[in-house]
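Wait, can you check?
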Amino acid sequence: MTEHLSSNVVNYLVWRYLQEAGYAKAALALAHDWNDEPETLPFADKVQTHTLLRMLQDGLWLDDMRAAASNGTEERRYQFGRDHGRPFARYNGDARRRKTLSSRRVRKEEVNGTAADGDAPARKKKKGSNEAQARVNGDMEIETNGAPAESEAIVSDADSVIEEEVAPLVTTLSLGESGGLQTEKITDLGPQTTFLRIDEPGATVVHTEWSPTEPQLLLTAGESLLRIYHIPNSSQTQPDAPTEPVSRDLDIGLNHPTVTAVAWTLPGEALIGTLEDMTADSGEKMTKGKLYHLSEGGLQTRLVTAVLGSVFALRYNAPANLLLSVCSTDVNSRICVWKEIKQEPLYSAQTDHPVFAAEWMNDSTFVVAGYGILEVYEITAENKLVVQKSFTTSTRWENLRYDSVCNIIACSSASDETHPKLGLILPGDTEIRTHEFAPGEDITGLEFQPITNPASHNADSHRLLATSSDSGFWTVQFWNAKKPFENVQRFSSGSVIEIAFSPDGYLLAAAGTDTVTFWDPEVGIAKAKWKPADNDEQKWDTTLPDARDTELEHLLRWDADGKKLAYKLGNQVAIINFWSMNSTAQKV
């Protein structure tokens, strides 16, 4: 006997769908016309997330099975065609960001012309990502006799509905997930934009990094690209000051190099890791890694050293004037600490694991993470580099962050993990605490909220850690890192590919394909958004990845003053300006 459907049940399922997909105004209108307190209905606590979507998917599955069983005598009852209207430009889940397994494998295979024997399988393509939404009109007839409730198609359709709009949500659902209610007008930052385009054949933008000491300098680098931009402030009043960005290409004497890592150091100076395609005397193709020092704003370049493998991480410790570099192949890594950028490092260590991420903890301690490795290193009083702590792990860690306020290490796993993991290490821990995400919910962003005055943080305060996902329902989540894994805020913002806190921690920028939403992490509501204006379409290309020759990779970078945000999408960079606001805290 099938479940009985009443108007209350149908209305409640529609109301829940509208809430979960972010159509809160429509949900409020439905509740006003039908029931002011839908959650008080006796069956409300039995309804799980995405129930309506699962029911619809089950119905479509049964309809397809019925048509198949008729041997062609009956057609499918529900057919919506291939054209569902103009698709929202979204991130292709296969088009992984730079620091993902696929791109890393390519780099590793290029090292010295040898193929890497990495055992990590290539990630499977998500299904149904571009067929977003089936709308049901008229009478509804639903049977529930054994169709699977959880399937890949169901997850894909749920993702697509959520990702249809990357827009600030008005949250009214009070089921303990989010208590924010959008009441104030959201600031539109679209008109305050400067666009940079890199159109040279063969050039690909991989890195965009602001100078920490000269906020008007932006270094862009990647494949066959090394360029510095001077971005004028929107508030500049000097009559002879340039009003448009001025760029200068930097020549390091290599043939179409790929820049794999970037770190600004002293004013006007930076370090870059490169890969160069070369041909040996025997005619064999090979790729060579090198470390270069840029000075005088890039006017002077100097080769520091050749490296084995690729430079995956460069981290500068300004108070100690130390540079940390990590070079990795598919089987091992070399970790170096440089005091002065000469030909030999001050300290070095070898590991038998690929290392991809590193963070300074203080002037003499740093942490590294990679495939099957998470270790803390210390420079001792005897001037030796030793392993202070080694955490047993088999996880492929790709992202790493350290919070100096509470001495907490956070890490997230690679996209090829069956269950993506969030890891936390608190002071005194001897093991990594982990939280598993659902399969396919890759962690695309991992950031601690900056605290400008650490003395203001007390023992009872939350220590906010933000994560983002490009799929699943809750695509932006805030955790209390001091109490693993306590969820403080979470909400759906469509597919989120990159996140970045403003320097003062007041705003979290969350980027989709052509929209950046700025969230207040304390209350979980949107304060501002950026989307290119209609007349900027020629300046900002949001063509879907499967219609392009190259993947759309994303980056978000705030300048040191919090007045400009660089949003990189593919080979274009939007400089989102906040100069019309007095301060970050007064932006909205």
